[in-house]
Amino acid sequence: MVHGHVLSDFAKSDKEWLEVLLDLMADSADLLTKGDDNGFMNKVTVGLRDKLQPTSADDTPPPKTPRPHAPKAQSHIRQARPNHRIRPASESPLTQDDQPQ
User: Under 8 Å CB-to-CB from 66, ≥6 apart: which residues?
Assistant: First the structure.
């Protein structure tokens, strides 16, 4: 048994956003045929954002917050020895005879 609400038409109040969504999807369908799913979703999302006005606070996208900068990445060797510093040859524990020429 199939319930009526599954197969019923959209409400008239949904007509505004639904037509915009369907038009954007049709205009961007070529991206799907090329396998560019991410490009398709991006184009539809940006188009919806440009063409529709928020009707409530729930519809408004959240403000963009700057991301904190991650600390500079270190090589795995420096991570293993965080206090290591490169010594000049004059401070080398090797004797003069052991140092490469």
Answer: none
Rounded CA separation 29/41 (Å): 10
Cα(first)–Cα(last) distance of the chain, in Å? 89
Give SS3 for 16.
helix
Q: Which two tokens stand for residue 61?
A: 């996208």
| pTM exceeds cut of 0.85 | no
Q: How far apart are CA 96 and CA 92, in angstroms?
A: 9
In our burial notation (b when 16+ CB lie closer than 10 A, e otherwise), range 59-98 reads: eeeeeeeeeeeeeeeeeeeeeeeeeeeeeeeeeeeeeeee
- Binning the chain into helix, strand and coil, the percentages to the nearest 5 are 50, 0, 50
| Whole-number percent of the chain with pLDDT over 70 | 59
Q: Tens digits of per-residue pLDDT, 55-91? A: 777 777 677 777 777 666 666 666 666 565 666 667 6
